[in-house]
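seq:
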Amino acid sequence: MMAMKKVLNLCDKHGFVKPVWKGAEVSSLKFGPIGEFLVNNVRQEWYLGNVIDRNDNVFPIHSHASQLSGLGIEEPFCQIKSLCQGVLPFGIAQTICDGTLIHKQINDTTPPHAAFNPSHRTCLRSLLFVSPTDGRQKFYTWQQKRKMWWRKFSSHPGRFSLSDIIETRSEDKNVDGNDLRVNILAEFDWGPTIVETVHLSSLSSSQLSNEQLEALKVKQGHKHVLPDVVECILSLEVASLAFLCDAFSESSKRLLLRLHRRLAPLKVGFVVNLSDSSVSDRLLEVAKHLSLSLRQKAVSTLMLPDIIKKSQDLQINRNDEMGIPFTIILSDSTLNDGIIHLYSRETTLKEQVHISKVPDYVKLLVKNF
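struct:
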């Protein structure tokens, strides 16, 4: 519990997450202004992995929990089936803006740590409709893909693993197949936490109305069949908190968040290292210009007014605690030769870069990692 408190205290300090404590337990969590950047980045990476970077045709939809009944996707399913000319596989990537009940129903096998049980959840749900003969293979493929997605953005990839597969044989004679479920687990000091569930289900004709049955059937050869469904579901809030806990690092000298640069809320911070206070205003203007140039390249920056007042070490430590992967250090000589030092949180090394090349170079560093 002490480790969790340290993570939450650091996150609260810098505006990631504000915990509401009830005794020794966290009763709720509220994401702050920096945390909202993180949540948005996690959502974007999930979207890229589940919609854009796919061999199959996958289309996004957005819904409220109150709109869900059964699969809750009959109408968009028909539209997508028509668009794909009825040929499997195809998929739906669904954002459910209040999916608290859905997430609890799916992950009810292991009670989560209190901090990983927010009162509101945005569920990100991927549904892949496949031929019944391909269901199991797709299920095994996607559990591995989803595990690798978590490991890709982790500073401790071995933390994320798959649980044993839970198999439930259907009692419905009309269903030729099994119900398979596997959880993706994150192992922390306080125990394992379920961060995502991958589920294979065979649709049952007896559980569907005639209208739903006709809507969900697809043509396979000379027959019309109900597809198998591979479902991947996670909570956006739980995923963001899991990445924060994964990134937390403590040494004798400092605390820091080793957030993956694609997830980091802010990519670049600034430090002005002065030896001559008479040029402070000019260097501050240079820093503001660089910040604007980076933002125009879609690189988020932290530009604070105290960069000409605090020491270089204090500012770098603050940026490290906030998970900022790069810090631009300007000095008196920058005004003469246009050279800045680019500090990397990951390597703690500094490299010289000319001001004119900074925006494109930093964008490349963030994009290609």
